[in-house]
Amino acid sequence: MAQQDTDQQHAGVLPVDGEGYVIDTEDCEEREAAWRERGTSRPITVVGNPVLHQECADVTDFGDEFQQLVADMFTSQRTAEGVGLAANQIGVGKKVFVYDCPDDDGVRHVGVICNPKLVELPAEQRRLDDSNEGCLSVPTAYMPLARPDYAEVTGQDERGNPVRVRGTGYFARCLQHETDHLYGYLYIDRLSKRERKDALRQMAENEPRYPVVANG
User: Which residues form the active site (predicted)?
Assistant: First the structure.
């Protein structure tokens, strides 16, 4: 990465490494707690709610109202004991997600990504991981889903600065899952009809452990 680009990235909320990727593993507890202290927990929207099934609008205004939304998202994520949360999961159709997620080495990552775009990987770099996946918007349901075990996302931070984020393993799955949300896709949309039916059955047979918005 060119020096000029690296310098521009250093103007962002988080520092970046020598390759221009955000360092989101430092001061995680303090940063996440600071957001939560300003936030209000909101109920989670579940599959079937229209806001989950359409592409969200780009974030263009990073002012006080947006900062409060991000704080509410961190608080809602903690209430639901999630590792990632997209804005439409609390009923707001804006392209932003937050995360507080470990990778497969147990390293914690905390951050905010607005207007994310997944970087398409060359076929030779794609190694699929078919671990179980769940979603706060499909509560109590888990199904195996093959996804690449490495992911890169470009976008903006909570102040509008350009960012690049990368992750492996569980964190890579989180980055892909949350980006999907903002384009109107749930993980069950990537399952076969039979698997999707099974996931919805699991959801119907169990009670969520956090407040949800009832459909209809």
Answer: 178
Question: Which residues sit in the known binding site?
Answer: 135, 177, 181
Separation of alpha carbons 211 and 114, rounded Å: 25
Three-class DSSP category at 212: strand
Q: What is the pLDDT along the chain (216 residues), one digit of tens a residue?
A: 223 343 443 457 999 999 999 999 999 999 999 999 999 999 999 999 999 999 999 999 999 999 999 999 999 999 999 999 999 999 999 999 999 999 999 999 999 999 999 999 888 878 999 999 999 999 999 999 999 999 999 999 999 999 999 999 999 999 999 999 999 999 999 999 999 999 999 999 999 999 999 775
**Pairing, β 147-148 against β 150-156:** unpaired
User: What pairing do the DSSP bridges indicate for beta strands 147-148 and 128-129?
Assistant: antiparallel
How far is Cα 76 from Cα 136, in angstroms, rounded to an integer? 11
* DSSP reduced 3-state for 150: strand
Longest C-alpha distance within the chain, in Å? Answer: 55
Residues of the binding site for Fe cation: 135, 177, 181
Among 32, 133, 158, 178, the active-site one is 178
Active site residue 37: no
- How many whole angstroms separate alpha carbon 138 and alpha carbon 47? 6
Distances (CA, A) of 65 to 39, 60, 69, 121: 12, 12, 6, 35
